[in-house]
Amino acid sequence: MMKLIGTKICVVCGNEFKGPGNICKDGDYCNECEKKVRLVFMEDEEDYLPAAKIRARLNKYADPIAAYDSIKKPESCMICGKKLPKLMHMRLLDAYICMDCAQEAAGLLHTSYDAIGCMCLSEILPLFEQTIVRGGRMQAGPFTTRIHSALYIR
Predict the structure, then answer these.
(1) b/e for 72-100, b at 16 or more Cβ within 10 A?
(2) Are 79 and 134 contained in the same domain?
(3) Helix (H) or strand (E) holding 52
(4) pLDDT tens digits for 4-17?
(5) Which of 57, 75, 90, 124 has its CA 20 to 30 A from that of 118?
(6) Can you tell me the distance from the alpha carbon of 23 to that of 85, in angstroms, rounded to the nearest whole number?
(7) Domain of residue 54, residue span
């Protein structure tokens, strides 16, 4: 009977777990869900969300979460093609981008770097394509191709 004391049901996945767990609006969730939640939520964002919203976001990003550990850092940024430095790069769910592109994406989305890190490349790349279509210009350098927003040109 001692085994049952301290056993809880995860409000996100429904599995039993022991220990303190992690907190969301509807109760506690297990450490396995916590590992996934850390990939798709900014720090402490999930504390104020109901389990249904957490489940929905985990389901939305299920494939990138499953492939997260298998993605290797490429030599160049997936957006601009600039060489990625050792430390100054942004890790997305499914790709790596340079900090310049991360800053540009954060500006286009009116959000923070943390929020960019919780997204997929397929969500960010259309923003850069729209910038070009709406009158942004490309600036080519010897080692980089950079997209500039039309707002920054004026």
Answers:
(1) eeeeebbbbebebeeeebbebbbbbbbbb
(2) yes
(3) helix 51-60
(4) 457 899 999 999 99
(5) 75
(6) 36
(7) 2-67
